[in-house]
User: Which sequence fits this backbone?
């Protein structure tokens, strides 16, 4: 369905765990240079095995995987590992609750258990504790699903969680889902998404009950269930990600509904029943390839469900492009052009006052690859100059997006986290605005550079209304930078002076395996 | 033999070690573990401890070896050495401290051995084994401070009579740690006592190096910091005492008398300080009198907290505010003897009612314990309900408070629905702050 996924296959479910992204797609995790350099490097594949002399925390697959599954309604998550693994649950429990409120879902607490592996378990194995924990989860909470997340320790000592889950299958009212994500297995934290979906696809997704795949052109005449069949032929899954706000979901649904489509937003924050029926759709629509190609690629192979995986609908150009690809599938080319024309005209008029403020200002964007390129492209379209980008990792899904950056000599630092490299670059470039992923913005503020978050739970970023909000937000941000200036002048970053003078990309070891 | 735990209110030993190191002045943690541990564990305390943030070098800034499968198979010591070398070059710190995760401990990497290669360098490099499977966060706190006491702090033959080391208030795990330390420091200063705090304002690594001259260690805990206090005792010949976190009048008075006796301070001086503090304390507490009495703000108190806060909070609510202590649930594991000893503390409470004290590791069991603690309403015409009630706990207890119709204030870790900067609850002033927060929770909907 998409050039981005050409030659990829998804027949992995017979394996216990999803393959790593190192194995599955060409990707890089360490690169420093220009847009042009990255494009050429990706072409030659010499970026593939880079690593670092000085490293900072890159993120944990388990944490990302649980980010998906803990959002499901009425689930209990069992973390098979010591207490620290995914202990950030303590920090995000309230955040998830707020998301549930904002998304109009039942407001329930996140429930999780740790098998609390200790020294004895490292020697004797922890399967018995895992069994107890699963049974406790069932008895105390009667969840629809119990998700077992596997950490480094059971991975190394060889606990066989799948056998236990097979043993419990059918004995519990909850479905038990294994999620394998030992942190040391992959440098690409996005592998955690594949781990989560591997388990979801294995245990939660049911065969299609009512119709096989229904394409709009197949529906004809006045058969008894024609109306339902018609609805089915227009039903799409809008696949949300951890960073989509309710505002984003409303805006994207509004646009798809304007094309006459019946929209189901999932899988995040969906119920297990909704997820079990994910196969019953005419089309799967991705908004972030990094997040869900594994899921929709598999659904295509298993149920024949077509998918759209193209761009992230942030900014005008990319929202237009996203809608066109979807419309093409439903043969709604004329309709979509009408919609785009109306929306673009209204939005362009609304953006005029903001453009006057932003014209000539400079911006640097860091975070997930597709999100930062589309956000940068949008700010560029408002007259800002993109000085640089920092994707957490870089792979085939974002390669075409490089061309959208006007200045092909703009800096790219491919780095999960790694503020040490990014801050040296920023200290030289001194952009007027930094747009960054959670965890990065505080450090940039200490340089005295104003920041705005790349995503957030109560803010709309996607679609046309999201574009308006992005512009509005940048203008507001630049209206008062007093706090940033004061922090920059008074709070120190932990670097030696020589580090600011050095070439931060000397830190990257090129093409060394592992 | 441990058990599984529902919603443990802690991270692991490595998490505790990272938050401890990064709360020391200009100390740099170097995490020898897989890619996720450093950021994720630092993030736990950064967020869930009243948004205390990453500080000087934590969170995403944390240096880490990020070992991968290859290192697990072939060993990660070379990678660690490379990481230490470059960390010293890039990160500006006064102390570098290597701590280890589960993966490298299982394969047997010798992190302590690797750091010995740096012993003649310009900067001190220490190491400790802190895999998550050896215990929860407090364990990491004790391992790090014990290592400092044993290997970094210089032995001093002569002790400064009026200098004490302060332990037991763990950064992050105590959401108000800086304010709490400040509150204690302030009182001690009034008695002419200098406090070595590790994490308080104005500390430096150089000062910490000289903590060996203290005459006494005060551990504000029955659990956290005891191992470190023992190292100070054995290695530096500094005796220790344990005291309860002094929150409000009753507990602060007890604390002052205890250390006064220990340090040989004239009782008159202690009495004078208490009288002075109390005058101020009651001149402010007086402000609540009208509203407390006019709308009856006495409450049944339910406390769900860690072992440091549980008794001190309950004592403040019962002994200072005159609330009825009903139930205390401590989400922590201690041995049976310590449990018994801890339970006996509650006999000191001045209220007629004594609370039921339960040690329960599963945070989610609070609601069940509350229900068990009070007779059900079997549709009686006249039913004596557990109402009005107030639940003081962590942010995880918010929905339980709602279910039982109690007012609610999160104080004990994790706290995600409050932002904490310099606030502390220790001393008389801290008691006022806590009273302010409790009563604000009761009138916040007006």
Assistant:
């Amino acid at each position: 369905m998409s050039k981005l996924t050409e030659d990829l296959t998804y027949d992995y479910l017979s394996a216990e765990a999803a393959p790593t992204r190192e194995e599955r797609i060409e990707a890089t995790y360490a690169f420093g240079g220009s847009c042009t350099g990255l494009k050429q490097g990706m072409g030659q594949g010499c970026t593939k095995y880079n690593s670092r002399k000085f490293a900072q925390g890159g993120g944990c697959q388990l944490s990302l995987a649980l980010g998906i599954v803990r959002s499901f309604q009425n689930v209990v998550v069992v973390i098979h590992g010591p207490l620290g693994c995914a202990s950030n649950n303590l920090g995000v429990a309230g955040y998830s609750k707020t998301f549930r409120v904002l998304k109009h879902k039942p407001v329930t607490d996140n429930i999780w258990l740790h098998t609390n592996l200790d020294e004895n378990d490292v020697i004797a194995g922890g399967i018995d504790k895992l069994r107890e924990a699963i049974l406790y989860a069932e008895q105390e909470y009667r969840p629809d699903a119990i998700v077992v997340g596997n950490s480094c320790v059971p991975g190394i000592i060889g606990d066989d969680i799948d056998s236990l889950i097979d043993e419990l299958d059918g004995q519990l009212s909850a479905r038990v889902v294994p999620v394998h994500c030992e942190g040391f297995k992959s440098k690409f934290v996005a592998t955690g998404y594949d781990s989560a979906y591997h388990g979801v696809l294995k245990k939660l997704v049911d065969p299609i009950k009512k119709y096989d795949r229904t394409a709009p052109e197949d529906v004809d005449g006045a058969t008894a269930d024609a109306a339902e069949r018609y609805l089915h032929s227009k039903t799409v899954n809008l696949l949300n990600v951890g960073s989509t706000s309710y505002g984003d979901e409303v805006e994207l649904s509004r646009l798809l509904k304007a094309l006459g489509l019946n929209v189901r937003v999932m899988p995040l924050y969906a119920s297990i029943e909704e997820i079990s029926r994910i196969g019953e759709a005419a089309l799967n629509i991705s908004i972030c390839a990094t997040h869900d190609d594994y899921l929709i690629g598999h659904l295509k192979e298993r149920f024949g469900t077509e998918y759209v995986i193209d761009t992230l609908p942030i900014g005008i150009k990319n929202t237009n492009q996203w809608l066109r690809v979807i419309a093409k599938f439903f043969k709604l080319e004329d309709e979509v052009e009408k919609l785009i024309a109306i929306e673009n005209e209204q939005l362009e008029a609304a953006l005029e006052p903001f453009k006057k403020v932003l014209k000539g200002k400079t911006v640097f964007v860091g975070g997930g690859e597709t999100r930062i390129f589309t956000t940068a492209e949008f700010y560029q379209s408002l007259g800002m100059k993109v000085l640089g980008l920092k994707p957490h990792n870089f792979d085939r899904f974002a390669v075409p997006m490089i061309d959208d950056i006007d200045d092909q000599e703009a800096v790219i630092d491919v780095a999960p986290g790694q503020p040490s490299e990014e801050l040296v670059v920023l200290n030289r470039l001194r952009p007027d605005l930094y747009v960054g992923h959670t965890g990065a913005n505080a450090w940039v503020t200490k340089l005295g550079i104003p920041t705005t978050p790349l995503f957030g739970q109560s803010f709309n970023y996607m679609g046309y209304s999201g574009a308006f909000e992005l512009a509005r937000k940048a203008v507001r941000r630049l209206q008062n930078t007093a706090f940033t200036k004061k922090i920059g002048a008074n709070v120190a970053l932990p670097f030696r002076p020589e580090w600011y003078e050095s070439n931060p990309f000397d830190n990257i070891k090129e093409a060394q395996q592992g | 033999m441990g058990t599984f735990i529902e919603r443990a209110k802690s991270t692991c030993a490595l998490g505790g070690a990272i938050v401890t190191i990064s709360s020391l002045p200009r100390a740099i943690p170097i995490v020898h573990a897989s890619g996720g541990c450093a950021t994720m564990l630092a993030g736990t305390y950064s967020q869930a401890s009243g948004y205390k943030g990453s500080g000087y070098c934590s969170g995403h800034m944390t240096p880490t070896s990020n070992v991968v499968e290859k290192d697990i198979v072939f060993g990660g010591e070379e990678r660690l050495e490379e990481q230490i070398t470059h960390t010293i070059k890039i990160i500006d710190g006064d102390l570098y401290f290597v701590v280890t995760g589960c993966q490298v401990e299982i394969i047997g990497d010798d992190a302590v051995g690797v750091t010995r290669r740096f012993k003649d360098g310009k900067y001190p490099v220490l190491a400790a084994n802190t895999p998550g499977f050896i215990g929860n966060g407090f364990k990491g706190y004790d391992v790090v401070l014990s290592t400092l006491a044993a290997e970094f702090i210089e032995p001093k033959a002569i002790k400064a009579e009026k200098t004490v080391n302060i332990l037991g208030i763990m950064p992050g795990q105590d959401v108000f740690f800086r304010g709490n330390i400040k509150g204690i420091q302030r009182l001690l200063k009034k008695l002419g006592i200098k406090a070595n705090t590790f994490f308080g304002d104005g500390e430096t690594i150089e000062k910490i190096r000289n903590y060996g001259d203290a005459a006494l260690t005060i551990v504000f805990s029955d659990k956290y910091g005891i191992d470190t206090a023992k190292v100070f005792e054995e290695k530096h010949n500094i005796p220790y005492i344990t005291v309860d976190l002094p929150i409000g009048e009753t507990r602060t008075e007890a604390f002052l008398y205890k250390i006064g006796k220990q340090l040989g301070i004239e009782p008159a001086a202690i009495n004078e300080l208490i009288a002075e503090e109390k005058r101020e304390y009651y001149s402010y507490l007086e402000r609540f009198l009208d509203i407390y009495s006019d709308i009856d703000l006495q409450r049944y108190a339910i406390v769900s907290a860690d072992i440091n806060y549980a008794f001190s909070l309950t004592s403040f609510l019962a002994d200072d505010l005159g609330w009825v202590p009903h139930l205390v649930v401590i989400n922590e594991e201690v041995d049976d003897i310590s449990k018994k000893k801890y339970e006996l503390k509650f006999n000191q409470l001045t209220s007629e009612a004594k609370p039921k004290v339960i040690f329960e590791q599963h945070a989610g069991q609070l609601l069940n314990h509350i229900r068990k603690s009070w007779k059900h309403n079997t549709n009686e015409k006249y039913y004596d309900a557990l109402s009005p009630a107030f639940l003081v706990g962590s942010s995880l207890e918010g929905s339980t408070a709602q279910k039982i119709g109690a007012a609610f204030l999160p104080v004990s870790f994790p706290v995600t629905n409050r932002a904490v900067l310099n606030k502390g609850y220790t001393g008389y002033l801290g008691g006022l702050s806590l009273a302010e927060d409790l009563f604000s929770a009761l009138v916040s909907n007006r």
Q: What stands out?
A: The mean pLDDT of chain A is 93. Chain A has three domains: 61-188, 210-334, 351-509. Residues 351-509 of chain A form a domain with the Rossmann fold fold (CATH 3.40.50.1980).
